[in-house]
């Protein structure tokens, strides 16, 4: 029997162990998509206890605590941090087969040197151990540096001042780049009740009075250029699916007028507006040399009762299985007609979309970049061993795995960089298995290039970051 999560965790063959320990394990981390707060980096936040850094805002853990029958008081409520940690420890011991079990113990091992297993009985020991180190050893910046991170892209709204990014960039004592990433969902969501108030804020920040599509585009252009001046080279969009319902500018003007007046937007109007919006920003990303990330396939805020109490991003989202792949192809085809497809990463929350994504992307690759169109890494409900293996296998079957830009944290936690290690172990196990099975030669020069590329170098090249 293998030891619990030892140095060869998830590595079952000699080839897998060699690929990980000789190549992957040593590579830096480029975290090109996350949700951490740049203010906490600028101020080098210190956490009082492990609950603050582990459970604050982590809806992955919250969902599992609810599944274990834990009262909301101990999840998002007013229970003490120690009580919340206890409830999480009692939940964790039941999560056999869940990636949270592995992530949590990797974090305990790498940052706190704890090689036991967290459960209800060991909670007090782990609580004391972690808190002592958090108070005397770890801060936000030291955690980032210890994780061998070279660059972080946060997630930022077009109206954001980016003041914290500026402060970090001006601080010579911290050499990790922290760049903004453009996330204009609120400007795209014309069907939402908050649309009019958001557009008013965008008007104020941009200095453009937004009343129609032309003025909206002017305002977005001003903010795009500002973000570009601040080092932004990445956009991100949360979509129901990648839609294509073209319309005239006059139709979009009428839809915007309805949205600004707080009137109900029909589904047809929503799709037309979002298609025009996405076509416009995609062309701007191509002009600026940015990467466009499209995340889709999520049905959000399903529990209306809890949403009213707790708001978004609190653990009430699920996979949506409606995604007409033909519209994704038509969207890319419309951009291709004028040679304006930016470098694009497409993620679906539904793993059944892997093959469709792979075949669509293959229709639009060109010599502008190796792997110009990417299938994104296994995302959210899929970033576990089975999901990562399936995503990489599909990518290998239908595309060029050697050009894959690899993992991201997509996290709000400064301890989650071990997800890169988790991914790298799974990737090396997959590749090593193919070598052991005679499906790829034991060519260490070629394998080193593939492994180090997927871990780090491909992302540096793909995004064009200066490191």
3D structure, described in words:
With 467 residues, the chain is of the alpha/beta class. It is built from 20 helices and 9 strands. It has helices at 14-22, 38-42, 50-54, 59-67, 81-92, 99-112, 123-136, 140-146, 163-170, 185-188, 195-206, 213-229, 249-260, 267-288, 304-310, 325-336, 354-361, 385-398, 418-436, 444-463; strands spanning 29-31, 149-153, 177-179, 234-239, 291-296, 298-299, 318-319, 343-348, 373-375. It has a 4-stranded parallel β-sheet, covered by helices on one side. Helix 9 links the parallel strand 2 and strand 3. Helix 11 crosses helix 12. 44% of the residues are buried. The mean pLDDT is 97.
Any chance you could write out the topology, listing elements then pairs?
Elements: H1 14-22, E1 29-31, H2 38-42, H3 50-54, H4 59-67, H5 81-92, H6 99-112, H7 123-136, H8 140-146, E2 149-153, H9 163-170, E3 177-179, H10 185-188, H11 195-206, H12 213-229, E4 234-239, H13 249-260, H14 267-288, E5 291-296, E6 298-299, H15 304-310, E7 318-319, H16 325-336, E8 343-348, H17 354-361, E9 373-375, H18 385-398, H19 418-436, H20 444-463
Parallel strand pairs: 1-2, 2-3, 4-5, 5-8, 8-9
Antiparallel strand pairs: 6-7
């Amino acid at each position: 029997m293998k030891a619990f999560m030892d140095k060869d965790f998830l590595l079952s063959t000699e080839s897998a162990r060699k690929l990980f320990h000789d190549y992957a394990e040593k590579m830096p981390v480029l975290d090109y998509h996350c949700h951490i707060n740049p203010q906490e980096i600028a101020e080098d936040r210190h956490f009082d206890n492990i609950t603050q850094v582990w459970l604050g805002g982590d809806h992955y853990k919250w969902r599992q605590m609810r599944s274990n029958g834990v009262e909301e008081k101990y999840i998002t409520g007013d229970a003490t941090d120690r009580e919340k940690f206890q409830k999480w420890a009692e939940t964790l011991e039941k999560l056999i087969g869940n990636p949270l079990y592995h992530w949590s113990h990797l974090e305990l091992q790498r940052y706190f040197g704890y090689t036991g297993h967290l459960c209800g009985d060991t909670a007090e020991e782990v609580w004391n151990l972690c808190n002592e180190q958090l108070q005397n050893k770890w801060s936000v910046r030291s955690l980032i540096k210890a994780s061998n991170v070279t660059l972080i892209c946060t997630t930022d709204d077009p109206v954001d001042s980016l003041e914290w990014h500026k402060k970090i960039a001006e601080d010579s004592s911290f050499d990790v780049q922290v760049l903004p990433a453009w996330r204009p969902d609120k400007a795209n969501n014309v069907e939402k009740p908050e649309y009019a108030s958001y557009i008013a804020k965008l008007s104020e920040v941009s200095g453009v009075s937004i009343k129609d599509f032309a003025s909206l585009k002017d305002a977005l252009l001003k903010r795009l250029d500002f973000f570009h001046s601040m080092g932004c080279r990445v956009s991100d969009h949360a979509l129901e699916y990648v839609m294509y319902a073209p319309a005239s500018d006059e139709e979009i003007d009428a839809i915007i007028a309805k949205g600004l007046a707080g009137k109900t937007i029909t589904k047809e109007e929503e799709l037309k507006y979002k298609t025009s919006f996405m076509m416009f920003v995609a062309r701007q990303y191509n002009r600026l040399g940015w990467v466009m990330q499209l995340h889709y396939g999520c049905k959000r805020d399903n529990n209306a009762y809890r949403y009213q109490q707790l708001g978004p991003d609190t653990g009430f989202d699920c996979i949506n299985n409606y995604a007409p792949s033909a519209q994704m192809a038509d969207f890319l085809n419309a951009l291709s007609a004028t040679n304006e497809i930016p470098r694009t990463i497409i993620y679906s929350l539904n793993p059944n979309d892997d093959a469709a994504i792979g075949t669509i992307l293959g229709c639009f690759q060109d010599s502008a970049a190796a792997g110009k169109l990417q299938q994104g890494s296994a995302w959210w409900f899929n970033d576990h061993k089975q999901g990562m293996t399936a995503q990489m296998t599909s990518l290998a079957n239908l595309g060029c795995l050697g050009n894959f830009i690899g993992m991201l944290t997509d996290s709000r936690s400064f301890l989650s960089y071990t997800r890169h290690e988790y991914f790298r172990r799974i990737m090396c196990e997959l590749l090593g298995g193919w070598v052991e099975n005679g499906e790829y030669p034991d060519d260490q020069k070629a394998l080193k290039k593939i492994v180090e590329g997927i871990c780090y170098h491909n992302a540096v090249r793909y995004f064009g970051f200066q490191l």
